[in-house]
Amino acid sequence: MNSKAELLLQIENNVKRCRKCRLCQEAQNAVPGEGNIDAEIVFIGEAPGATEDQTGRPFVGRAGALLERMLVEIGLKRSDVWIGNIIKHRPPKNRDPLPDEIHACQPYLEMQLKILQPKLIVTLGRFSMNYFYADGKISRDHGRLIKADDYNVFPVYHPAAALRNSEFARALLADIKKIPDVLEEINGIVKEKAKADEPIAKGQIGLGI
Ligand code: URA
Predict the structure, then answer these.
(1) Which residues fall within 8 angstroms of residue 73, CB to CB, at 6 or more apart?
(2) Which of 43, 55, 85 for a ligand 1 pocket mutation test, highest count of atoms within 8 Å of Cβ?
(3) How far is the CA of 124 from the centre of ligand 1 (A)?
(4) Domains of the chain: which residue ranges?
(5) Topology (CATH level 3) of domain 31-193
(6) Which has fewest Cβ within 10 Å: 105, 125, 139, 160?
(7) pTM exceeds cut of 0.85
(8) Which atom of ligand 1 is nearest to the CA of 58?
């Protein structure tokens, strides 16, 4: 059987060869995503910007630097988490991704998440949140844990928005600081569920004696 790392590498190679939408025509590099493949937390952004396009790595520009500084506040380094995007090639002039581009790219992130099996998905910005939760509204839902399909999703403002607006920056930091408690809550739910799913021990069947 292929290891997690091998499966993720296969996806990475497919992303690099991808010609399923127009975005590959102008992009310099694909940005498949990177990080700790055993991470409990993954961060999912929208699409690569200029620096990401040049380097082939997610969140390595100013927005990424801000995200890293905020992670330090909760004792995390970039290498502790996995970071990816919904869209793997940069949209020209950083325009919003189009619905057909999101649709074309969808299988890649879907497969990556199936392999990574994160406990918590922190969505960065509105696009990423709406990918998991179409009815979401970022001004209402940021900083709230949402169960979307099989995933625990925690929407926060995009760090690029935080760079432009100090109110968003404050909200982003406050939400990031909630992550350890959110993770604890999820771990508690998982433990409770495992307990409830435990087979009844011999001798306890029947009258419970
Ligand atoms: N913004 C994103 O949404 N993703 C990146 O990788 C960089 C900036």
Answers:
(1) 173, 176, 177
(2) 85
(3) 9
(4) 31-193
(5) Uracil-DNA Glycosylase, subunit E (3.40.470)
(6) 139
(7) yes
(8) 6
Nearest ligand 1 atom to the CA of 158 is: 3
Q: How far is the CA of 196 from the centre of ligand 1 (A)?
A: 40
Q: 49 C-alpha vs ligand 1 centroid, how far in Å? A: 6
Q: Is 123 exposed, middle or buried (0-12, 13-18, 19+ CB in 10 A)?
A: buried
Test site for ligand 1: of 15, 23, 31, 52, most ligand atoms within 8 A of the Cβ: 52
Q: Count CB-CB contacts under 10 A for residue 18.
A: 18
Answer positive or negative: Cα dihedral of 138, 144, 149, 150.
positive
pLDDT in tens, the chain (209 residues): 689 999 999 999 999 999 999 999 999 999 999 999 999 999 999 999 999 999 999 999 999 999 999 999 999 999 999 999 999 999 999 999 999 999 999 999 999 999 999 999 999 999 999 999 999 999 999 999 999 988 999 999 999 999 999 999 999 999 999 999 999 999 988 778 788 888 765 555 444 44
| Measured distance CA(159)–CA(124) in Å, rounded | 7
